[in-house]
Write a structure and sequence with these properties.
The chain has 484 residues and is α/β, with parallel strands linked by helices. The chain has 18 helices and 18 strands. The strands form 3 sheets. A 9-stranded mixed β-sheet has the order 3-4-5-2-1-6-7-11-12. Adenosine-5'-diphosphate (ADP) binds next to helix 1, strand 13, strand 14, helix 13 and helix 14.
Length: 484
Amino acid sequence: MNIVHIASEIAPIAKAGGLADVVLGLARSFKTLGHNVSVILPKYSFLSSSKISSKKVSSFSFTIYEKTYSNQIYVTEVEDISVYLIEPDSNDFFKGDKIYQGKPKKDTIRFTYFSKAAVEYLNTKQDPIDVIHLHDWHSSLVAPLIHLQNKDTKPKIVLTVHNLSYQGKCRFAFLQNIGIPAPKVEPFSVRKYNLFKRACLLKGGILYSDATVLVSPSYAKEIFTKSKACGLLSFLKKQRHKIQGILNGIDNTIWDPEKDEALPFKYSKNLSINEILLARRKNKEHLQKKLGLNVKDVPLIACVSRLASQKGPKLIRRGLLYAAKKDSQAILLGSSSTHFLQKKFETLAQKYKANRDIHFHFQFDDELSRLIYGSADFLIVPSYFEPCGLAQLIALRYGCVPIVRKTGGLKDTIFDINDSVPGEQKNGFTFQSFTPRALLFTIDRALHQHFKDRCKTLVENGMRMNYSWEKSASEYLKIYTQKT
Ligand code: ADP
């Protein structure tokens, strides 16, 4: 099959969160199966020639907003996958050092342009495309644009929703300028508090795709409840026939503690548990020195996360401060595009600057995240909702025990030491209630087991689990090949 992903992120060159890992992992697993896979991405100005090597392969132009835009296409290889980068001649659309600018209006302009340009670019290609795979609202507009084309055969459109709470809303007129007539926009419009009607791009993607995938079975069920439907409940119910959940995987060759260059002491699940723990302890020492923490052998509790309200910032803060007071240490590696949350955490970091048992790091730092996964004893993920979550899967692979709230993909992948599941499935600590009390109680339980040496089995079980892409890819394959 000829499969084209259209996305806003791909790891490692343009990554803000798990979406980037998923696009790369899914693309690679289908390439391994012998399919022809490519990815289309904006050529953000931070993807300059000094950062990546790319070559110009074609150019095309189209007219919107009564203006003609010329574009260049560059190609670069990312882990064997051909990534086609769209660069408008007047590169205002993709300027700046971030993928998401945190300003809804600017981001909508950025990604509606990108979606339109991606479709126009595909129109210039001769080879037939079997599947166009879209990701989140950023490329959702491609679905109605393809749907409206007057062609005998059309590719299958698959949309993966990584997070229903980001929907991309814009003015009606905006889409008419792009070439979608008002009656076609109407079914994916939203109206809130009697304000002007707006187009909801994610809704358009779901409506005009052949199949919509949510990134875990539990999340695919939760979105049919009022609290998790993000205002789309009645719409989603009507689309239920085409919605399903497929758990994300991780790429075991990219996340591999045996080969990870960020780890001074590498290890694999084939070593004895004592050898694994020894390597991890030495990594911890290295991490403590690197971050200026006290060098001592105490439990280390970490959080590697975007700082967004979905992730439970209050619980993260309470959990880490609690850990630092309990004869253990805490690290936060957090990045945020939400200004007020970032500020709140920065104030906290300032307050604890002199405390050498807690460390805050506010950057997107892939290398540091790897060292944390390879050193920390526990990773907290106290999310209010979590479509899938990759951090806990990476943690398992590196032998770091997850402490998570039972929601979405966390519920599907982490099983508490006290759950009534077969012994080899127990791999962490879970709690239900979205309260600091529930989290702190669970941290206490985890520390208690740690000191009694009973976490060793959890480490072993976690490292033996296989959350690679194979199984998930076979489920996507069924969707790709199903007759519509
Ligand atoms: P989300 O996609 O909602 O942000 P996931 O758990 O699905 O959450 O994926 C997060 C991914 O981003 C993981 O690979 C995690 O290691 C990485 N990550 C999150 N924050 C940072 C950061 N500040 N620095 C480096 N990596 C990060």
